[in-house]
Amino acid sequence: MHRYKGRFAPSPTGPLHAGSLAVALASWLDARAANGVWLIRIEDLDPPRTVPGAARLIVETLKRYGLESDEPIVFQSTRSDHYQAAFARLQGKGLIYGCACSRKDVDNMIEAQSGRRFSVYPGTCAGGAPCGKPIRAYRVRVPEKEIFFFDRAADGCAQHLQRDVGDFIVKRADDLWAYQLAVVVDDAAQGITDVVRGADLLDNTPRQIFLQHALETSTPRYLHIPLVLNAKGEKLSKQTGAAPLDIARPLLELQRAAQHLGLGAIEAPSVEAFAKRAIEGWKAREERLPAA
Ligand code: GLU
Hints:
This protein is of the alpha/beta class.
């Protein structure tokens, strides 16, 4: 077994909030409890969503909170060549096709065929895009079988990619890489053994496992932690108006995050003392979790 390597992979779309802190803390505690290595990776793949200065603020805030990357921070915006190489491998296996459908085309087709509005791509361009229509994106052909994996908290999870997701986009024609491909390439390149992240990404995991198989890279262990919700039951995010973390009160915010992670009230005089107690609490919590 390789030495534990975990990561926190924020998208720099704004400052950290209580939800992203809970994820960062969980992945950091999991790495520290396993005497492992913990990395920060900035997922700045989508220029329109990237907020200037947000990456620096995220990294500074994490540092004030005692969460520092053990290796130099990787920025996805610098890794296009690696994504291109993986894309070429998938192409070499006949798994990629160009798709001319706009999002609206896809929605209309789905509604016409099933009366439902959910985003399973019906495979319109799988046999070739219509002549004369420009390619908008590249999709990967998904298999007609269930992908099954164990999540350390949710237990066994299965998803039939063709039925539940459809062929999904890995690259846009304007050269923007999709999260699904980039995350798989980077987790493999960085030797990540354990992914700890928010439960909103649980149903992305089978797509990533399928890509890992196609690219012949190993599959990390996964732990998806419950999302922090606001009073309306929505995931905290910039869109739902989440308050930025108070950089001046790390201890209080860390204590709240620990509560959310089921570690109870951790009294501590300093961030350092909190970290020690939280690691012990995390180890005890792990012993209570069913073994995957
Ligand atoms: N960048 C993603 C986010 O901020 C997280 C990706 C991951 O942990 O796999 O939601």
